[in-house]
Amino acid sequence: MNNKVVIGIVVVVVAVLAIFLLSKSGSLYSPSQTQTSTRTPQPSITSTTQQQSPTNEVTKEQNVITLTQAGFSPSTLTVKAGTKISWINNSGSGLSVNSNPHPIHTNYSPLNIGAIGDGQSKSLIFDKPGTYGYHNHLNPSQTGTIVVQ
Amino acid sequence: MMSIFRISKVQLAVTLFLIFLTALETYPSFVAVRIVILSLLFTIGTDLSVTFIRKRALFVPYAALVTGLILSLTLNPHLQWYEILLVAFISMGAKNFLRISNHHIFNPAGIGLIIGGILLHQNVSWWGVSFQTLTPFGIKHTLFFLILLLPLLVSAYRMRRYGNTLSFLITYTLLLLILNHFNFSILQTILFDPTVIFFSIVMLPEPMTTPNNPSRQLLFGVLVATAAALISLIRSSFTPDPLIMGLLVGNLLFFRFR
């Protein structure tokens, strides 16, 4: 088949798809691991060092970091050793919490919590004092710090 | 028609698309599909347009296809369409214009990611090559990890570019061990990190901007690894991705010594 014809067909198909996609209103849906579309924190899929906690315990916790489209809030959280911290994703899309530095995540491997679907949460207990930096691997400009005393 | 699949760039594009499918399975979202389509549209469109303006000729943009797929796997999938266009434009602009004596200087995807990232204050996401880990062990994770390794068949076996990859991985691992005070628990993170693997078998051995000579390939890999490790030490509000920056440093120093 003539190369120019092939190029032309591919360009037209991709252009039509692109126009179709761009015409959609920016509504993003979360990865399939999201169990519900509500913003209520759900029982977290905890890290490997944790047991799964009931829903109401997550909502009562003081040490909660929320991700919105603006980033992690609070961006710096200071806690005592042995405290459980929860990350809640209210950003409207997927999130992956990983230890600094990006992209190899070697500073503190337990902090490689991984994917958190929209509306979901995950937790981690910090046993040792120190300063732990983390980021959203899918959008590395969103960063945070945990200071453990 | 089948002869098209004998072209190494097409083979590489096929493996990259398979990697995208594994990422899509883990992160099935509209933005993932959107960024692939827009990256391909903008890289191919820009490359065809610029080349037509320069040479008044059309061609099959295999290189742009590969660059578009790399960008789709590495860019933040939540970027606006004009931000994706900017990165694609920079990539293809560098491919077409940043050359001396007809030698390409920089890896097109790499230069687009860094300059676009600086302009947009966005770091490289590597979202599409973050989920293909061996753990937790299982059929799916093993299969996805093997799919991640598929580009080796093109870069190492077909194009004989294993020198770059090997020297990079060894040097990078050793340096990170030293920088982390010989904390051997990070070995698994480094050696099986899908981002590092993807970088070393897809972006690092890019044939137009890396040495052909086997000895120089080894040196190139060592240099890129060293530069990447040193750049990773920089702590600032925005540090460009160390892997890509290391690659660009290597491109700049070796473009005369292919």
List the helices and strands and how they pair.
The complex is a heterodimer of chains A (149) and B (258).
Chain A: H1 3-22, H2 55-60, E1 64-68, E2 71-73, E3 76-79, E4 83-89, E5 95-99, E6 114-116, E7 121-126, E8 130-136, E9 139-148
Parallel strand pairs in A: 1-4, 3-9
Antiparallel strand pairs in A: 1-2, 4-7, 5-6, 5-8, 8-9
Chain B: H1 8-26, H2 30-55, H3 62-74, H4 81-97, E1 99-100, E2 103-104, H5 108-120, H6 139-149, H7 151-158, H8 162-179, H9 187-191, H10 194-203, H11 214-231, H12 242-254
Describe this structure in words.
The complex is a heterodimer of chains A (about 150) and B (about 260). Chain A is about 15% helix and about 35% strand. Chain A has about 150 residues and is an alpha+beta fold. Chain A has a five-stranded mixed sheet with strand order 3-9-8-5-6, with no helix packed on it. Chain A has a four-stranded mixed sheet with strand order 2-1-4-7, with no helix packed on it. The longest helix of chain A has 20 residues, at about 5-20. By secondary structure, chain B is an all-alpha fold. Chain B has a two-stranded antiparallel sheet with strand order 1-2. In chain B, about 50% of the residues are buried. The model of chain B has no long low-confidence stretch (mean pLDDT about 90). Classes of the chains: A alpha+beta (about 150), B mainly alpha (about 260). The interface of A and B includes residues 6, 10, 115 and 138 of A.
Summarize the structure.
Chain A has 149 residues and is an alpha+beta fold. Chain A contains 2 helices and 9 strands; from the N terminus they run ααβββββββββ. Chain A is globular, with a radius of gyration of 20 Å.
